[in-house]
């Protein structure tokens, strides 16, 4: 049996918001309604409109903080009372948390935990070693959530390995790749001789500094879309509305993601679906998802990155082949496929089984 309504937590800060609306849209097409409980900063007006356009979605702004912003757990008592109460009041049959600590809040319904990132794996990839002691409460919340969830979902095998390196084997884990409804959202356009990068420019994980250093050696300009201070060497565009960013991806010859850390990379998928040639950092996630459909360069070598980008700039046939390969690979990561994966797990949890187990 499948649920008629679920409670899903999300934030409006980054890619989790896009993921949540995509999945809620896919679930709506299958007759499943979503109560979307927003943690952290409230969605802006454009985000609210996008949420309200999803059939059967009820938006709840909780005022609760995000766990990685509330590293000492100050909001935990209030959240532990508020979220289970919302699940009961809304009639949700299953709870889907897009975080960690909320999974251990004692819901009466089955709980699925979708892991999109974590501070410990981010820290190792970006700074080396482990987070300092003032993150201990956060890390304890992650452990408790992973242990309490009936199922844990990750968007790539690479990220599953990173999680298990920090928290031990996750026997109830399943990999479901993120997806986008590319048949509706993306259109290739007339290409401009530019390289585009996009994301949170302030986030060390995005590693835009290495691209800025590489840009000095390139014959094409590099445009940078996203929040954060201007980075010398890149042409800043600021934060763009989703439709503006997709339009720019559809017009850019090359999309470059030099990330040090990326559990999935929705911006890469969007650029690929828009038909841009991909040049990516050589990290396990990107190899897993885009091997054979992108060029790769070391994440810490500006000269090597510039060399790969310049090869793609100079070689028109190679660039067009990469653009076609990216479009074809993007067709694998669809909203429908993602929705099927989550629905199967929801049904297993409601039947009292877990990933890898057979229903009675």
Automatic annotation (TrEMBL):
Glycosyltransferase subfamily 4-like N-terminal domain boundaries: 13-182
GO MF term list: glycosyltransferase activity
Pfam families referenced in this protein's UniProt entry, alphabetically: Glyco_trans_1_4, Glyco_transf_4
InterPro entries documented for this protein: Glyco_trans_4-like_N
Protein name: Glycosyltransferase family 4 protein
Source species: Marinimicrococcus flavescens
Lineage: Bacteria, Pseudomonadati, Pseudomonadota, Alphaproteobacteria, Geminicoccales
């Amino acid at each position: 049996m499948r649920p008629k309504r679920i409670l899903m937590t999300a934030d409006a800060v980054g890619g989790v918001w896009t993921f949540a609306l995509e999945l809620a849209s896919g679930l709506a097409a299958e007759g499943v309604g979503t109560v979307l409980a927003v943690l952290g900063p409230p969605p802006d007006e454009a985000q609210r409109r996008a949420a309200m356009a999803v059939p059967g979605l009820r938006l709840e702004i909780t005022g609760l903080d995000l766990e990685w912003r509330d590293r000492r757990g100050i909001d935990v008592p209030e959240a532990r009372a508020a979220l289970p109460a919302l699940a009961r009041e809304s009639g949700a049959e299953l709870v889907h948390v897009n975080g960690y600590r909320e999974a251990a809040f004692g819901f009466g319904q089955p709980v699925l935990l979708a892991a999109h990132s974590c501070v410990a794996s981010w820290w190792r990839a970006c700074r080396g070693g482990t987070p300092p002691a003032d993150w201990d409460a956060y890390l304890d919340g992650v452990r408790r959530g992973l242990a309490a969830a009936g199922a844990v979902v990750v968007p790539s095998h690479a990220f599953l390995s990173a999680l298990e390196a920090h928290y031990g084997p996750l026997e109830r884990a399943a990999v479901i790749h993120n997806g986008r409804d590319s048949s509706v959202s993306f259109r290739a356009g007339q290409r401009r001789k530019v390289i585009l990068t996009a994301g949170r420019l302030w986030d060390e994980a995005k590693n835009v500094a290495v691209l800025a250093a590489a840009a000095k050696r390139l014959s094409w300009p590099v445009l940078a879309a996203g929040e954060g201070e201007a980075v010398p060497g890149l042409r800043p565009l600021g934060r763009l509305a989703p439709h503006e960013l997709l339009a720019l991806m559809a017009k850019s010859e090359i999309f470059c993601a030099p990330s040090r850390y990326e559990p999935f990379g929705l911006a890469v998928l969007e650029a690929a679906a828009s038909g841009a040639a991909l040049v990516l950092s050589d990290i396990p996630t990107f190899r897993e998802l885009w091997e054979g459909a992108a060029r790769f360069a070391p994440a810490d070598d500006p000269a090597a990155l510039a060399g790969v980008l310049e090869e793609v700039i100079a070689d028109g046939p190679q660039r067009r082949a990469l653009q076609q390969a990216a479009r074809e690979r993007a067709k694998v990561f669809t909203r429908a496929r993602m929705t099927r994966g989550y629905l199967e797990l929801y049904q297993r949890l409601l039947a009292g089984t877990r990933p890898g187990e057979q229903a009675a």
